[in-house]
Amino acid sequence: DVNKRQATDDPRHWNYWRREADAYESGLVRVWERYGVRAPRLLARVERADGDVALWLEDVRGEPATSWSLDRHVSHARRLGAAQGAVGELPDRRWFSNRFLREYVGGNTLGQEVLDDGAAWRQPLVRDHFPAGLRREMVRLHHDREWFLEIMEALPRAFSHLDLWPANVRADGPDSVLFDWAFAGDGALGEDLGNYLPDSVFDLFVPAARLPEYAARAYEAYLHGLRESGWRGDERAVRLAVCASAVKYDWLTALSLARAGEEQIDYGGAGVVAGELRYRERGLTLAFLAGWAREARELAPGLGFPAAPSA
Q: How does pLDDT run along the chain (311 residues), one tens digit per residue?
């Protein structure tokens, strides 16, 4: 059910309420199907009297990616690379999200006033579970945010899902079925993978201790898929897109500081998460993303981009 009162009427806005209905109606949710990545089949689209739109979709009964093995996630990354490498950038549509990352990050501002506040970093959950040096790295990422966003907007483009995380993916035999196309549109080639990997850990579907191995394997699988598709671009640009995607989580550090004294609720509000677990996993993942940010700063000048301001 797509409810227009929950978002905006601007077709270019990242949260345009009709985008998913438009994506299904256009058929673009099927453009990756031959490469093993597809949307649920549309059974009916109903315009309601109050102006809302109802989409009736196939009931996909395969295993949700929230419980996949690492091997299955890696196979998904290969299929995604093949799909995006083969299809690449599509002609613009009126409903495509544009500059999604900039608008999404800019709209999440809770807690930014405490990002470099010593007392906030001394809260027990933060002090005990956020690695040493993380404060410096996350403050630097925040200060460099505009540079990262400009990099992401200048890299090679691809039609992108832009909300790709395990809760939006199910198995259909060997294929991946992607739900929730409400943000779909223009993205950097590699941006979807740069979202999928950390979100797998932030939402506790993959242990943070396995993230370095997981990310390395999934990235190589994505590249393998790109090459398989016949793509012959510069692999450094793909790596830069994945690493610079760390900027999407600039807001999460500030939010974590602001809410460290509260009860920790899981995604969707269905239950409580142990604070120690959440902050340990989140701290390790943010530290991993700080490494991505450092790598992005090193890669960018070699691809003709200016050095980061704080470099």
A: 444 445 788 898 888 999 999 999 999 999 999 999 999 999 999 999 888 899 999 999 999 999 999 999 999 999 999 999 999 999 999 999 999 999 999 888 888 899 999 999 999 999 999 999 999 999 999 999 999 999 999 999 999 999 999 999 999 999 999 999 999 999 999 999 999 999 999 999 999 999 999 999 999 999 999 999 999 999 999 999 999 999 999 999 999 999 998 888 776 667 888 999 999 999 999 999 999 999 999 999 999 999 999 75
Q: What is the DSSP letter of 80?
A: H
Identity of the amino acid at 81: G
Token representation of residue 215: 């990310």
Amino acid sitting at position 172: D
Question: What are the CB-based long-range contacts (under 8 Å, 24+) for 130-134?
Answer: 130/279, 130/282, 130/283, 130/286, 130/287, 131/283, 131/284, 131/287, 133/287, 133/290, 134/253, 134/283, 134/286, 134/287, 134/290
Q: Report strand pairing: 157-160 vs 169-172.
A: unpaired
Q: What token pair was written down for 122?
A: 């001394």
Q: What is the pTM of this model?
A: 0.94
